[in-house]
Amino acid sequence: MKKILPLLIMSIMFVACKQAYYYEETGTVFHTYYRIKYQSNSILTAKIDAELRAFNLSLNPFNPNSILAKVNRNEETEVDVWFATVFNKAMEVSERSGGFFDVTAAPLINVWGFGFERKDTVSPHVIDSLKAFVGYRKIRLEGNRVVKDDPRIMLNFSAIAKGYACDVVASLLEREGVENYMIDIGGEVMVKGLNPNGECWQIGISKPKEGSGLMDDDINGIVRLCSKCGLATSGNYRNFYVKDGKKYAHSINPLTGYPSEQSILSATIVAPDCMTADAYATVFMVMGAEDACRMAENIPEIAYYIICAGDGDTPDVRYSREMDSMLVR
Questions:
Q1: Taking the model in full, what pTM does it have?
Q2: Neighbouring C-beta atoms of residue 133, cutoff 10 Å
Q3: Distance CA 185, CA 169 (A)
Q4: Is residue 80 helix, strand or coil?
């Protein structure tokens, strides 16, 4: 016992001296930036990079070696747990939104120039022909394989994958014992615990201005997040183009096949996980303010903050009762 005691004391002193610091990681994934802040006893750069590289091989449609790309090419492949998780959540959101969210809309997104393939010819005939193999009920998972009713069906997870990437990194950090973190991937955010000042995390909602970037500092509101949750914002003011004098935004209505023409300029959703927040932010943009707010009444796990076009230069801001309690005055 006398020989063991000094070693025990030294071990206790070593642990006591090993302090937890806040680290910040930055980089790119899915053709966008990521920024991760976390409190840890050690830096986790290598593990975060490895997790994001693995995730990239699962769900990045731009990577020809990804599982998603192979599924779209109808190659024999088994999906992993990440793919299955995103697929099942997408089907759930599709059902609850009445089809306004649909990951099989990839051909429509591509033809309008917002997908992973660029097409230039758009006409009512082309849209109708593409809609023949668009529809979330035309595809399913059987075990770990994707089964399509039509081999021309293609998937686009861009409206949900970034959010899920935040969740995946959050799970990694928690496995490493991290309790305080903020993960931001292309504007989709997952938080838990406290920031370096020992306070709840505060996330800004950008003003929807054409030409503003993902790191824009012009803030319309601030959300205070004191529990583990995800926040995602979708806005047509960031991703659009003008052709022949007409503006085309990236939110494609899978039911009509055309870009959505709603009054919503941006939609911010808070949910228990960032994947859910990401998906419903897209639903709001496509569905429109009135219908989306009514839908949200039956989805208690989400809170919303939407900015709509108002009279003149003054936007119309609406938010749910749950979101009201999170806003910083």
A1: 0.87
A2: 17
A3: 10
A4: coil
> What is d(CA 138, CA 149) in angstroms, rounded to the nearest whole number?
5
Q: How many CB atoms are located within 10 Å of the residue 45 CB?
A: 12
Distances (CA, A) of 19 to 42, 306, 308: 9, 41, 46
Band of pLDDT at residue 119, cut at 50, 70 and 90: low
The three-point CA angle 256-114-59 to 5° equals: 105
Inter-CA distances, 209 with 216, 313, 317, Å: 10, 11, 14
Q: How many residues does the chain have?
A: 329
Count the neighbouring beta carbons within 10 Å of the beta carbon of residue 208.
22
Answer whether 164's CB lies under 8 Å from 187's CB. Answer: no
Sign of CA dihedral 210, 224, 304, 173: positive
| Residue 278 C-beta-side C-alpha neighbours within 13 Å | 25
Q: Is the pLDDT of residue 139 over 90?
A: yes
Token pair of 303 as six digits: 């809170």
**Closest C-alpha to 118, from 126, 109, 127:** 109
pLDDT tens for 184-210 read: 999 999 999 999 999 999 999 988 765
The chain-wide mean pLDDT, for the chain, equals: 86
Whether the CB-CB separation of 282 and 234 falls below 8 Å is answered with: yes
Coil, helix or strand at residue 269: strand
Residue with the bigger pLDDT between 18 and 70: it is 70
Instruction: Return the SS3 of 53.
Output: helix
